[in-house]
Amino acid sequence: MVKTYRKGYAAENQLVHLLYARGYAVMRAPRSGRVGLPTPDLVAIKGKKVLVIECKSRKTGFTVEREQLEQLKEWKRRTGGAAYIAWKRTRLGWLFLKLADVIKNKGNVGKKFAEEYGIKIDDI
Questions:
Q1: Which end of the chain is more exposed for a tag (fewer CB within 10 A), N or C?
Q2: What are the phi and psi torsion angles at 37 (to 5°)?
Q3: Which one from 16, 26, 32, 94 is the annotated catalytic residue?
């Protein structure tokens, strides 16, 4: 297993458990970008609340690929749920960014952007 894949898998797995502990039913799509269909990393459901999530685990800022943003947008449209980019910041934990905010910022996610628009897990 490649180191970056292992890191991403571990982060996604951690988020699955965090959401499950908060009452969500959670499904992880392994290697989500490789199935040939739009697929988010995680789908979490609690009652009528649906979350579709693309996970990123990075020490510093990053850019979400346009294709990933479009796929998440399609899942949001099909499910009627809320779509987020979830960023596991090294030693700082998870922040959730609304898809619309990330799209407006052209997929760019940095420290200042995350501090301004980021939502903590208990507030999603």
A1: N
A2: -130, 155
A3: 32
